[in-house]
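--- STAGE predict ---
source: upstream dedup step, 1 unique chain passed
mode: sequence only
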Amino acid sequence: MSAGRDDGSGPGSTGAPQAPRAPGIPGGGIAALSLPYQALAALALAVVGVVACVHLGMVFLHVAPSNTLTKQNGEAIDDWVYPEFEQNWKLFAPNPLQQNIAVQARAQVRTAGGQWKTTGWIDLSAQDGEAIRGNLLPSHTVQNALRRAWDFYTASHDNADKPNGMRGALSERYVRRTVMLRLAQQDLGGEIEQIQVRSETKWVKAPSWSDEKTNTRPAHRVLPWWTVTEADLPEGARSASEAAR
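--- STAGE serialize ---
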């Protein structure tokens, strides 16, 4: 029996002997990049690290008890956390929602001839429902943006529509911009000058086997008219408005 010899002719071998890796040559990772790319990768990692630290700090201050930092920088903290990272515990609520709440809007527009007209109420929630129905992968924006904007507003205002904290003004701007983002996509016959928003709440009818009595008549919460400003317009509508002028 002859001794085996590793000549590269074994199973799975290409037949050519592999050259040994020279010492000191890196095997991969950032070290394998050229110097300019190493610097770019290090800069990107540093930016990600700084943003992560800022975010963790903001969230910590947001959930921490009231202190000097939160009192002095409360508005900046709220602007960072709300509404993009708003948190609630509705997922764990013991009782399911028993109301259907629709957000509707109407507008006062100025026509090309200088006349004013008021549109009918436009059911924005119904439009979102139509966009979701039959869509296997609806976007988060279509599903939640309008609903969360209204929840944000009602949570930060009393029944007389007076803000009950620093989040009041922020929630109002959020609702106005969300509504204008939807209305700007529709032809209302002129330039939008004012908008009015309302909610229509309907209690879900009790099932036939239940003795519970529910009033299914819709209830409305109507907000005052808001004058549309440049800050309320989405970027596309702002550009179109400037071009029209």
